[in-house]
Amino acid sequence: MSISNIEYYRKRIEEESRRAASETDPSVRHVHRSLVKMYRNRLQAEELRAELLPSSAAQRPNTGVDLARRDTYTPSTSRVPTASA
Predict the structure, then answer these.
(1) Which of 3, 24, 46, 76 is deepest in the core (most CB within 10 A)?
(2) Which DSSP string corresponds to the chain?
(3) Residue of 2, 13, 1 lying closest to 43 (CA atoms)
(4) Mean pLDDT of 25-31
(5) pTM of the entire structure?
(6) Model confidence over 67-85: pLDDT tens digits?
């Protein structure tokens, strides 16, 4: 049984937070805190994805095509060329 991306990111946030709290070296602690920030951002993206897509789509791992499709800019309005007279 595989876990969802959302569950995975929650576990990673918990684990990296625990590591950051117990670390004494400031540079290593910074790395763990940076990982927590990254996983929080990814968790937010997955939660949004789960709201917008069917639950089966939200549970599958990201693929390159999915990431590219999500990162593509789609303008909300189309521009119509005007004739200069």
Answers:
(1) 46
(2) -PPPHHHHHHHHHHHHHHHHHH--SHHHHHHHHHHHHHHHHHHHHHHHHHHHS-HHHHHSPP-HHHHHHHH----SS---PPPP-
(3) 13
(4) 94
(5) 0.59
(6) 555 555 555 555 556 666 5
For residues 27 and 51, the model is more confident at: 27
User: Structure tokens of 6?
Assistant: 């959302």
Judging by beta carbons within 10 Å of its beta carbon (0-12, 13-18, 19+), is residue 9 exposed, middle or buried?
Answer: buried
How many other CB atoms are found less than 10 A from the CB of residue 46? Answer: 20
Backbone dihedral angles phi then psi of residue 4, each to the nearest 5 degrees: -75, 160
Percent of the chain whose pLDDT exceeds 70: 59
Q: Please tell me the total number of residues recorded for the chain in this structure.
A: 85
The residues, ordered by sequence, that sit 6+ positions from 6 with a Cβ below 8 Å of its Cβ are 43, 46, 47, 50, 58
